[in-house]
Amino acid sequence: MTGAPVTEPSDIRSVGIKGVTFGEHVTVVQPVNLYGCTIGDGVFVGPFVEIQANVSVGARTRIQSHAFVCELVTIGTDCFVGHGVVFVNDLFSVGGPARGRRELWKKTVIGNSVSIGSNATILPVSICDDVVIGAGAVVTRNIDKPGIYAGNPARFLRSVEQD
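^ thats the sequence. predicted structure below, dont judge the formating
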């Protein structure tokens, strides 16, 4: 069998865990890419997670496998980020990717006690405390009222029942 010659990539980068500030009693299941971020006390980070620079994760938050947390995201305390959740900081405001032009990126702020279901996509928004985001939801607007949200775009379904 013949074909194109096999060559090595010209730029291979390895990250792993680099420049991270960890709180106490943090659990990280490798492989992961964590760099330039701050991880609070008692946080759990599952395998195949990437958490980029300038991200802050609050105490006792759980980030499940295959989640992607891009730069400029702040996650509060006692949160849950489900499998495959993706945070986005580039809205393609110039008709395509910002291509590293950080001035075009937007920030995301997640409050405390927020649960984000598997495979949700979180655009640059602010989400208040005590919110549940359903699996597969796409959050395109700020959420300033506690409750349960689902769909694409995510919409308010009902209040969270308190014990």
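The chain has a mean pLDDT of 94.
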